[in-house]
Specification:
Radius of gyration: 23 Å
Largest sheet: 9 strands, mixed
Strand content: 15-25%
Structural class: alpha/beta
Shape: globular
Length: 428
């Protein structure tokens, strides 16, 4: 199915054609026609499947196909969990509305001057893209007029729930006109997010796109066991020295460790920068811009960059620390292998991470290949039950420092209560 099969404004189709967008993705093919019909949608789709266009394109068409008298407040409100995702959506909106001269988009989020955003909101605009915290602040200040809102989009709703934005979401939706269309997009529609969605939508149609395994086919996933942080650092140095490792995102669990790792890598001559929530919006925007332009080759980030950072040149993702939630693992590795390119996702794990690994494999329905770097093997071999400490260990004899290191395939990540398959199969 192509975009020309849709009843979109010709000016929008012209932009899509010039951008090289021909065929619709699965989420676009299912969602766009129903959004154009005016029904509420509750959709689940993995990252990188084109869901932003699935709600932006029909939203823009609705605005131009149903003109109203000029007003100050937005007709479409899009709420996203992070600054990066909000900015990405705003950039896509500007791109798709290239030939829609009268369409104005405003993006508001934390880290930007209230004065600047108040000035933007005081002028006529059609689309408002916002993060929950800043949106609530400006609502309470009486700076936003919601009387014209016809369409509400809750993007990455599961992430907003994880970040504690449930009450702000309730407050925002309560302030909107009751006669509106609402679209909710989430990585999953199970559990709490399904129950909560009932608060915001009226008789929604469910759309679920199950392509996680298909998406991962172009991402080579590998797992390295680590004894401690020092062991992780040595393996990271080896990985970053390989020629095929070009532009890399390294994910850490904390902002403090991200800054520390940046300092260590910078001392080793790497072009590296941090990206996390303690940075101002100006700093974060400048960092991501430098990364997109290739002036930075390594980005050390917390999960603030797992969603919303769309840079096609990323070759590798390194999970220095595994995420606690399997959904975050999928979003992290989804930063590479984009637009049909090949990508590599490498993860470090200590023995205490085995339960997390089990959840990740269950969620992705894939077993992660366990490998070792020759000369940097873990001291403890998990030949008994990997979920318990004290398994048999084997010390490796010192290697000749002039001997070339390589990856040794050890099998799949062990499951709880199973014997770990550590017999070597392949050496490269």
């Amino acid at each position: 199915m192509t975009f020309n099969n849709l009843s979109l404004d010709p000016r929008i189709l012209r932009t899509l054609t010039e951008s090289g967008y021909l065929e619709l993705t699965k989420i676009q093919a299912q969602a766009i026609p129903r959004v154009l019909d005016g029904v509420d949608i509750r959709a689940s789709a993995p990252t990188g499947t084109g869901k932003t266009a699935a709600f932006l394109l029909p939203a823009l068409h609705h605005i131009v196909a149903n003109p109203q008298n000029p007003g100050r407040g937005p007709r479409v409100l899009i709420v996203a969990p992070t600054r990066e995702l909000a900015q990405q959506i705003s950039q896509q909106a500007d791109k798709y509305s290239k030939y829609l001269n009268r369409i104005k988009t405003v993006c508001i989020s934390g880290g930007v001057s209230y004065q600047i955003q108040n000035r933007q909101l005081s002028k006529p605009h059609d689309l408002l893209i916002a993060t929950p915290g800043r949106l609530i602040d400006l609502m309470n200040q009486g700076k936003i007029d919601f009387s014209r809102v016809e369409l509400l989009v809750l993007d990455e709703a599961d992430r907003m729930l994880d970040m504690g934005f449930l009450e702000p979401m309730k407050e925002i939706t309560a302030a909107l006109p009751k006669e509106r269309q609402t679209l909710l997009f989430s990585a999953t529609l199970k559990g709490a997010i399904f129950k909560i969605s009932e608060m915001f939508l009226k008789n929604p149609e469910d759309i679920t796109i199950q392509v996680a395994n298909e998406r991962h086919e172009n991402i080579d996933q590998k797992l390295f066991y680590a004894d401690n942080v020092g062991h992780k650092n040595r393996m990271l140095d080896y990985i970053l020295a390989k020629e095929e490792v070009k532009y890399t995102i390294i994910f850490t669990a904390t902002k403090r460790h991200a800054d520390q790792l940046v300092s260590e890598l910078r001392e080793k001559g790497q072009r590296v920068a941090a990206l996390h929530g303690d940075m101002s919006q100006h700093q974060r925007t400048r960092t991501t811009t430098r990364f997109r332009e290739g002036r930075i080759e390594i980005l050390v980030a917390t999960d603030v960059a797992a969603r919303g950072l769309d840079v096609n040149l990323i070759t590798h993702v390194v999970n220095f620390d595994l995420p606690r939630n399997p959904e975050d693992y999928v979003h992290r590795i989804g930063r590479t292998g984009r637009a049909g390119a090949k990508g590599t996702a490498l993860s470090f794990a200590a023995e205490r991470d085995l339960s997390v690994l089990q959840k990740i494999e269950h969620y992705t329905k894939q077993a992660i290949e366990v490998v070792e770097i020759e000369g940097l093997e873990p001291r403890r071999q998990r030949n008994s039950k990997p979920n318990r400490p004290g398994g048999r260990s084997r010390r490796h004899s010192p290697r000749n420092p002039n001997e070339k290191r390589g990856f040794k395939v050890r099998g799949k990540a062990p499951r709880r209560g199973a014997r770990a398959p550590f017999k070597a199969k392949v050496s490269t």
